[in-house]
Amino acid sequence: MAPSDKPDRRDVALIVGGGPGISASCARLFATNGMAVGIAARTPDKPALQDLEKTHSVRRYGSDASDPASVEQLFSAVVRDLGAPTLVVHNIDGRVPGIFGKRIIDVDPSLAFDTIRSAAFSAFLVGRQAARLMLENELNASGVRGSIIFTNASAALKGFPSSSAFAMACHAKSGLAQSMARELMPQGIHVANVPIDAAVGLPQEDGTRAHRRAGATVNDNMADPDRIAETYLQLHRQHRSTWAFEIVLRPWVEKW
Fold it and tell me: 9-242 has which CATH code?
């Protein structure tokens, strides 16, 4: 049977790195577009994730994405509960407390290692497990097995002063995504790397958006997580004749 003859299966989306920003926006949008959605976090009882479960029937999972066994258990649970994933989003920043703003001569090596493990190694583990399962998926009507999307940061494009550990981790994530894309795209798996060159304005109780370091959002000067989610959905739905690998998102007033 040719790919065009196969009926489209229901999409199963897994978002790893659950929180109230990009992950929550993705979960809501994916669910409202008919996907079965799971979201994973070290602390799955966060209020934002509980709300997603109540309002959009999103399944919550506890998982340490930097631990190989935990990641394997996560994907096994998702397959059991929802089915084999067709869309996986790795949305883990990875900066650990105490690493931000440190000069190279002041960086604690153990914190640098923890940052790489949390950001880049977790991306490797999640990407590896996603690829293993997606390669077993049958091609859908568009000749596609699935999509893997990595949220990244501007540090993936430029190493900022006093940000050596994070720059290493983000560059590693970009290299991982590029290698995976070249290997997996010819096999029907779309891999995308999305550096976000901006503060992400998280929704506040009063309906505004703000960032813990950058303050309140003014005149769209911060990235809107709902708009980021729309980009991710569009990436997942792209025709394979024009798959994008890297899309850099930044507000219209961002200096770069």
Answer: 3.40.50.720
